[in-house]
Design a protein that fits this description.
The protein is an alpha+beta fold and 356 residues long. The protein has 11 helices and 12 strands. It holds the Pfam family Amino_oxidase.
Length: 356
Protein backbone atom coordinates (compact mmCIF):
# COMPACT_ATOMS: atom_id res chain seq x y z
CA UNK A 1 0.00 0.00 0.00
CA UNK A 2 1.20 3.47 -0.86
CA UNK A 3 0.07 4.82 2.50
CA UNK A 4 2.36 2.42 4.34
CA UNK A 5 5.34 3.39 2.16
CA UNK A 6 4.79 7.12 2.71
CA UNK A 7 4.26 6.66 6.46
CA UNK A 8 7.67 4.99 6.68
CA UNK A 9 9.47 7.94 5.10
CA UNK A 10 7.50 11.08 5.88
CA UNK A 11 5.68 12.77 8.76
CA UNK A 12 3.97 15.74 7.08
CA UNK A 13 0.46 14.85 5.95
CA UNK A 14 0.31 17.50 3.17
CA UNK A 15 3.64 16.22 1.81
CA UNK A 16 2.47 12.60 1.92
CA UNK A 17 -0.80 13.47 0.20
CA UNK A 18 0.96 15.53 -2.49
CA UNK A 19 3.31 12.63 -3.23
CA UNK A 20 0.31 10.30 -3.20
CA UNK A 21 -1.23 12.11 -6.15
CA UNK A 22 1.46 10.59 -8.39
CA UNK A 23 0.42 7.15 -7.12
CA UNK A 24 -3.20 7.58 -8.21
CA UNK A 25 -2.77 9.85 -11.23
CA UNK A 26 -4.82 8.48 -14.10
CA UNK A 27 -5.87 5.51 -11.96
CA UNK A 28 -9.27 4.68 -10.53
CA UNK A 29 -7.58 3.94 -7.22
CA UNK A 30 -7.01 5.52 -3.84
CA UNK A 31 -3.78 5.78 -1.81
CA UNK A 32 -5.19 2.85 0.18
CA UNK A 33 -5.60 0.60 -2.88
CA UNK A 34 -3.17 -2.37 -2.90
CA UNK A 35 -0.55 -1.86 -5.62
CA UNK A 36 -0.84 1.93 -5.68
CA UNK A 37 2.78 2.13 -4.58
CA UNK A 38 3.88 0.86 -8.00
CA UNK A 39 2.13 3.70 -9.83
CA UNK A 40 4.17 6.17 -7.76
CA UNK A 41 7.34 4.25 -8.65
CA UNK A 42 6.34 4.31 -12.32
CA UNK A 43 6.15 8.10 -12.22
CA UNK A 44 9.46 8.73 -10.47
CA UNK A 45 11.71 5.98 -11.89
CA UNK A 46 12.49 7.86 -15.12
CA UNK A 47 14.90 10.69 -15.72
CA UNK A 48 15.16 13.84 -17.79
CA UNK A 49 18.57 14.92 -19.11
CA UNK A 50 20.28 12.83 -16.47
CA UNK A 51 18.13 14.01 -13.56
CA UNK A 52 16.31 11.08 -12.01
CA UNK A 53 12.62 11.63 -11.34
CA UNK A 54 12.62 15.00 -13.12
CA UNK A 55 9.79 16.14 -15.38
CA UNK A 56 9.80 18.78 -18.09
CA UNK A 57 7.59 20.81 -20.37
CA UNK A 58 7.74 20.36 -24.13
CA UNK A 59 8.43 23.62 -25.96
CA UNK A 60 5.51 24.26 -28.30
CA UNK A 61 3.15 22.01 -26.34
CA UNK A 62 2.87 18.21 -26.22
CA UNK A 63 2.06 18.08 -29.93
CA UNK A 64 5.58 19.31 -30.62
CA UNK A 65 6.91 16.02 -29.25
CA UNK A 66 4.82 14.06 -31.75
CA UNK A 67 6.05 16.34 -34.51
CA UNK A 68 9.68 15.81 -33.47
CA UNK A 69 9.22 12.03 -33.70
CA UNK A 70 7.47 12.46 -37.05
CA UNK A 71 10.30 14.59 -38.45
CA UNK A 72 12.88 12.04 -37.29
CA UNK A 73 10.93 9.27 -39.03
CA UNK A 74 10.37 11.10 -42.32
CA UNK A 75 14.04 12.08 -42.42
CA UNK A 76 14.76 8.36 -42.55
CA UNK A 77 12.26 7.60 -45.31
CA UNK A 78 9.00 7.04 -43.41
CA UNK A 79 5.68 8.09 -44.95
CA UNK A 80 3.10 9.46 -42.53
CA UNK A 81 -0.59 9.65 -43.41
CA UNK A 82 -2.60 11.66 -40.88
CA UNK A 83 -6.39 11.56 -40.63
CA UNK A 84 -6.45 8.18 -42.40
CA UNK A 85 -8.46 5.87 -40.19
CA UNK A 86 -7.59 2.17 -40.26
CA UNK A 87 -10.56 -0.10 -40.91
CA UNK A 88 -8.90 -3.46 -40.25
CA UNK A 89 -5.64 -5.38 -40.40
CA UNK A 90 -5.15 -7.37 -43.60
CA UNK A 91 -4.53 -11.06 -43.01
CA UNK A 92 -3.15 -13.67 -45.40
CA UNK A 93 -4.49 -17.20 -45.78
CA UNK A 94 -1.88 -18.32 -43.26
CA UNK A 95 -3.29 -15.84 -40.72
CA UNK A 96 -0.28 -13.57 -40.94
CA UNK A 97 -0.59 -9.77 -40.93
CA UNK A 98 -0.03 -8.38 -44.42
CA UNK A 99 -0.83 -4.70 -43.94
CA UNK A 100 -3.86 -2.55 -43.19
CA UNK A 101 -7.02 -1.45 -44.96
CA UNK A 102 -8.07 2.19 -44.57
CA UNK A 103 -11.66 3.36 -44.28
CA UNK A 104 -11.42 5.01 -47.70
CA UNK A 105 -10.71 1.60 -49.24
CA UNK A 106 -6.96 2.03 -49.65
CA UNK A 107 -4.86 -1.02 -48.80
CA UNK A 108 -1.32 -0.59 -47.45
CA UNK A 109 0.68 -3.79 -47.79
CA UNK A 110 3.48 -4.58 -45.34
CA UNK A 111 5.39 -7.56 -43.99
CA UNK A 112 4.91 -6.27 -40.44
CA UNK A 113 2.24 -4.19 -38.71
CA UNK A 114 2.85 -2.31 -35.45
CA UNK A 115 -0.15 -0.89 -33.59
CA UNK A 116 0.09 1.76 -30.90
CA UNK A 117 -3.69 1.82 -30.61
CA UNK A 118 -5.06 0.31 -27.41
CA UNK A 119 -5.25 -3.48 -27.09
CA UNK A 120 -9.04 -3.13 -27.18
CA UNK A 121 -9.07 -1.34 -30.55
CA UNK A 122 -6.24 -3.45 -31.98
CA UNK A 123 -7.62 -6.87 -31.12
CA UNK A 124 -11.37 -6.32 -30.66
CA UNK A 125 -12.03 -3.96 -33.58
CA UNK A 126 -9.27 -4.34 -36.18
CA UNK A 127 -8.93 -8.16 -36.13
CA UNK A 128 -11.70 -10.72 -36.84
CA UNK A 129 -12.44 -12.40 -33.51
CA UNK A 130 -12.36 -15.88 -35.01
CA UNK A 131 -8.67 -15.35 -35.84
CA UNK A 132 -7.74 -14.96 -32.15
CA UNK A 133 -7.63 -17.49 -29.28
CA UNK A 134 -10.81 -17.28 -27.21
CA UNK A 135 -8.95 -16.97 -23.92
CA UNK A 136 -6.89 -14.09 -25.34
CA UNK A 137 -10.01 -12.22 -26.49
CA UNK A 138 -11.62 -12.78 -23.10
CA UNK A 139 -8.54 -11.41 -21.35
CA UNK A 140 -8.52 -8.25 -23.51
CA UNK A 141 -12.23 -7.74 -22.82
CA UNK A 142 -11.59 -8.07 -19.09
CA UNK A 143 -8.81 -5.46 -18.91
CA UNK A 144 -9.74 -2.82 -16.34
CA UNK A 145 -9.89 0.44 -18.30
CA UNK A 146 -11.73 2.57 -15.75
CA UNK A 147 -10.49 6.14 -15.77
CA UNK A 148 -11.05 8.90 -13.23
CA UNK A 149 -9.63 11.72 -15.36
CA UNK A 150 -11.30 14.86 -16.63
CA UNK A 151 -8.86 17.19 -18.36
CA UNK A 152 -9.72 20.90 -18.48
CA UNK A 153 -7.74 23.29 -20.65
CA UNK A 154 -8.17 26.93 -19.63
CA UNK A 155 -7.26 30.28 -21.17
CA UNK A 156 -6.81 33.13 -18.67
CA UNK A 157 -6.06 36.83 -19.09
CA UNK A 158 -3.68 37.05 -16.12
CA UNK A 159 -1.45 34.87 -13.99
CA UNK A 160 -3.18 33.14 -11.05
CA UNK A 161 -2.23 34.60 -7.68
CA UNK A 162 -2.30 32.09 -4.82
CA UNK A 163 -3.02 33.03 -1.22
CA UNK A 164 -0.07 30.90 -0.08
CA UNK A 165 2.33 32.78 -2.39
CA UNK A 166 0.81 35.99 -3.81
CA UNK A 167 2.10 37.42 -7.08
CA UNK A 168 4.65 40.22 -7.09
CA UNK A 169 3.41 43.72 -7.89
CA UNK A 170 4.80 43.52 -11.42
CA UNK A 171 2.77 40.34 -12.03
CA UNK A 172 5.81 38.42 -13.24
CA UNK A 173 5.83 34.62 -12.81
CA UNK A 174 7.32 33.22 -9.61
CA UNK A 175 9.10 29.85 -9.18
CA UNK A 176 5.94 27.98 -8.19
CA UNK A 177 4.24 29.05 -11.43
CA UNK A 178 6.81 26.93 -13.27
CA UNK A 179 5.92 23.77 -11.35
CA UNK A 180 3.05 21.35 -11.02
CA UNK A 181 0.67 22.80 -8.42
CA UNK A 182 -1.35 20.23 -6.43
CA UNK A 183 -4.66 21.32 -4.91
CA UNK A 184 -7.16 19.57 -2.63
CA UNK A 185 -4.52 17.19 -1.32
CA UNK A 186 -3.90 18.43 2.21
CA UNK A 187 -4.28 14.85 3.44
CA UNK A 188 -4.65 11.39 1.96
CA UNK A 189 -8.16 11.07 3.41
CA UNK A 190 -9.32 13.76 0.98
CA UNK A 191 -8.00 11.70 -1.93
CA UNK A 192 -9.64 8.53 -0.63
CA UNK A 193 -12.95 10.35 -0.14
CA UNK A 194 -12.81 11.72 -3.69
CA UNK A 195 -12.12 8.19 -5.00
CA UNK A 196 -14.99 6.69 -2.99
CA UNK A 197 -17.49 9.18 -4.42
CA UNK A 198 -16.47 8.29 -7.97
CA UNK A 199 -16.84 4.55 -7.37
CA UNK A 200 -20.50 5.29 -6.65
CA UNK A 201 -20.90 7.14 -9.94
CA UNK A 202 -20.56 10.69 -8.59
CA UNK A 203 -17.87 13.20 -9.62
CA UNK A 204 -15.81 14.12 -6.58
CA UNK A 205 -17.13 16.99 -4.49
CA UNK A 206 -13.58 18.11 -3.81
CA UNK A 207 -11.59 16.84 -6.81
CA UNK A 208 -7.87 16.23 -6.81
CA UNK A 209 -6.38 18.93 -9.08
CA UNK A 210 -2.97 19.07 -10.71
CA UNK A 211 -2.53 22.54 -12.20
CA UNK A 212 0.31 23.67 -14.42
CA UNK A 213 0.88 26.81 -16.48
CA UNK A 214 3.09 25.84 -19.45
CA UNK A 215 2.91 29.32 -20.98
CA UNK A 216 5.10 30.61 -18.12
CA UNK A 217 8.01 28.65 -19.56
CA UNK A 218 6.84 28.82 -23.19
CA UNK A 219 5.39 32.31 -23.78
CA UNK A 220 4.55 31.52 -27.43
CA UNK A 221 1.62 29.40 -26.21
CA UNK A 222 -0.43 32.48 -25.31
CA UNK A 223 -0.68 36.22 -26.13
CA UNK A 224 1.28 38.64 -23.96
CA UNK A 225 0.13 38.75 -20.31
CA UNK A 226 -2.28 35.87 -21.01
CA UNK A 227 -1.69 32.23 -20.11
CA UNK A 228 -2.91 28.70 -20.72
CA UNK A 229 -3.62 26.61 -17.64
CA UNK A 230 -3.77 22.83 -17.81
CA UNK A 231 -5.93 21.10 -15.20
CA UNK A 232 -5.59 17.34 -14.70
CA UNK A 233 -8.48 16.45 -12.40
CA UNK A 234 -10.03 13.39 -10.82
CA UNK A 235 -12.11 11.58 -9.80
CA UNK A 236 -14.82 11.49 -12.44
CA UNK A 237 -16.45 8.17 -13.39
CA UNK A 238 -16.97 7.24 -17.04
CA UNK A 239 -20.52 6.17 -16.21
CA UNK A 240 -22.50 8.50 -13.96
CA UNK A 241 -24.95 7.22 -11.37
CA UNK A 242 -28.61 6.58 -12.29
CA UNK A 243 -27.79 6.30 -15.99
CA UNK A 244 -27.03 9.99 -16.38
CA UNK A 245 -24.83 11.04 -19.29
CA UNK A 246 -21.94 13.47 -19.47
CA UNK A 247 -24.00 16.13 -21.26
CA UNK A 248 -23.09 19.82 -21.39
CA UNK A 249 -24.85 20.48 -18.10
CA UNK A 250 -22.93 17.73 -16.28
CA UNK A 251 -19.64 18.81 -17.87
CA UNK A 252 -20.06 22.44 -16.90
CA UNK A 253 -21.31 21.60 -13.40
CA UNK A 254 -18.15 19.60 -12.74
CA UNK A 255 -15.88 22.25 -14.26
CA UNK A 256 -17.57 24.91 -12.13
CA UNK A 257 -16.86 22.77 -9.07
CA UNK A 258 -13.18 22.54 -10.04
CA UNK A 259 -12.99 26.30 -10.63
CA UNK A 260 -14.63 27.00 -7.27
CA UNK A 261 -11.94 24.91 -5.60
CA UNK A 262 -9.17 26.81 -7.40
CA UNK A 263 -10.84 30.08 -6.43
CA UNK A 264 -10.44 29.12 -2.75
CA UNK A 265 -6.67 28.87 -3.27
CA UNK A 266 -6.32 31.69 -5.80
CA UNK A 267 -9.04 34.34 -5.49
CA UNK A 268 -9.76 36.01 -8.81
CA UNK A 269 -9.06 32.91 -10.87
CA UNK A 270 -12.65 32.53 -12.09
CA UNK A 271 -12.80 36.15 -13.22
CA UNK A 272 -9.61 35.65 -15.24
CA UNK A 273 -11.01 32.78 -17.32
CA UNK A 274 -11.71 33.67 -20.96
CA UNK A 275 -12.18 30.14 -22.30
CA UNK A 276 -12.21 26.49 -21.26
CA UNK A 277 -12.25 23.06 -22.87
CA UNK A 278 -13.65 20.18 -20.79
CA UNK A 279 -12.69 16.59 -21.64
CA UNK A 280 -14.46 13.93 -19.56
CA UNK A 281 -13.57 10.20 -19.74
CA UNK A 282 -16.04 9.58 -22.62
CA UNK A 283 -14.55 12.58 -24.49
CA UNK A 284 -11.02 11.24 -24.03
CA UNK A 285 -12.16 7.88 -25.40
CA UNK A 286 -13.98 9.37 -28.39
CA UNK A 287 -11.29 11.89 -29.39
CA UNK A 288 -8.08 10.01 -28.59
CA UNK A 289 -9.12 6.34 -28.68
CA UNK A 290 -8.34 5.86 -24.98
CA UNK A 291 -10.40 2.89 -23.71
CA UNK A 292 -12.70 4.20 -21.00
CA UNK A 293 -10.71 7.44 -21.20
CA UNK A 294 -7.75 5.65 -19.56
CA UNK A 295 -4.49 7.44 -20.38
CA UNK A 296 -2.53 4.20 -19.86
CA UNK A 297 -4.72 2.07 -22.21
CA UNK A 298 -5.60 0.06 -19.09
CA UNK A 299 -5.02 0.33 -15.37
CA UNK A 300 -1.46 0.07 -14.02
CA UNK A 301 -2.52 -2.45 -11.39
CA UNK A 302 -0.30 -5.37 -10.42
CA UNK A 303 -2.51 -7.86 -12.29
CA UNK A 304 -2.08 -5.83 -15.51
CA UNK A 305 1.67 -5.23 -15.46
CA UNK A 306 4.90 -6.92 -16.56
CA UNK A 307 4.23 -10.42 -17.98
CA UNK A 308 0.45 -9.83 -17.83
CA UNK A 309 0.42 -6.70 -20.04
CA UNK A 310 -1.69 -6.79 -22.15
CA UNK A 311 -2.25 -10.52 -21.50
CA UNK A 312 -0.29 -13.43 -20.05
CA UNK A 313 2.10 -14.96 -22.62
CA UNK A 314 1.84 -11.84 -24.80
CA UNK A 315 3.93 -9.30 -22.91
CA UNK A 316 6.78 -9.48 -25.45
CA UNK A 317 5.07 -7.18 -28.03
CA UNK A 318 4.23 -10.06 -30.38
CA UNK A 319 0.55 -10.94 -30.64
CA UNK A 320 -1.42 -14.09 -31.55
CA UNK A 321 -1.36 -12.76 -35.12
CA UNK A 322 2.11 -13.36 -36.65
CA UNK A 323 3.55 -10.10 -37.93
CA UNK A 324 1.31 -7.92 -35.73
CA UNK A 325 2.95 -6.12 -32.78
CA UNK A 326 1.57 -3.96 -29.97
CA UNK A 327 3.75 -0.92 -29.29
CA UNK A 328 1.53 1.50 -27.34
CA UNK A 329 0.70 2.16 -23.69
CA UNK A 330 -1.20 -1.13 -23.42
CA UNK A 331 2.11 -2.99 -23.82
CA UNK A 332 4.89 -3.34 -21.24
CA UNK A 333 5.90 -1.18 -19.36
CA UNK A 334 2.72 0.85 -19.74
CA UNK A 335 1.83 4.52 -20.14
CA UNK A 336 3.90 7.64 -19.77
CA UNK A 337 5.77 9.96 -22.12
CA UNK A 338 8.87 7.81 -22.40
CA UNK A 339 8.66 5.74 -25.58
CA UNK A 340 9.82 2.55 -23.85
CA UNK A 341 7.02 0.35 -25.22
CA UNK A 342 7.59 1.63 -28.76
CA UNK A 343 11.35 1.18 -28.64
CA UNK A 344 11.11 -2.31 -27.21
CA UNK A 345 8.48 -3.34 -29.78
CA UNK A 346 10.62 -1.95 -32.60
CA UNK A 347 13.58 -4.05 -31.42
CA UNK A 348 11.45 -7.21 -31.46
CA UNK A 349 9.95 -6.36 -34.87
CA UNK A 350 13.40 -5.71 -36.36
CA UNK A 351 14.65 -9.04 -35.06
CA UNK A 352 11.73 -10.82 -36.73
CA UNK A 353 12.01 -8.76 -39.92
CA UNK A 354 15.56 -9.94 -40.51
CA UNK A 355 14.23 -13.52 -40.71
CA UNK A 356 11.69 -12.73 -43.42
Amino acid sequence: LLGQILDQWFESEPLKATLATDAVIGAMASPHTPGSGYVLLHHVMGELEGRRGAWGYVAGGMGALSQAIAHAATARGAHIFAEKAVCHVLLGRDGRAQGVALQDGTEVRSKLVLSNASPQITFLELIPQEQLPKDFVQRIRQVDTRSPVTKINVAVDRLPSFLAAPNARDGQPLPHHQCSIHLNCENTHLLHQAFTEATHGHPSNRPMIELCIPSVLDPELAPQDCHVVSLFTQYTPSMLADGQSWDEQARNAYADRVFNCIEDYAPGFKASVIGRDILTPPDLERIFGLPGGNIFHGGMSLDQLYFARPAPSYSGYRSPIPGLYLCGSGAHPGGGVMGAAGRNAAQVALKDFRRL
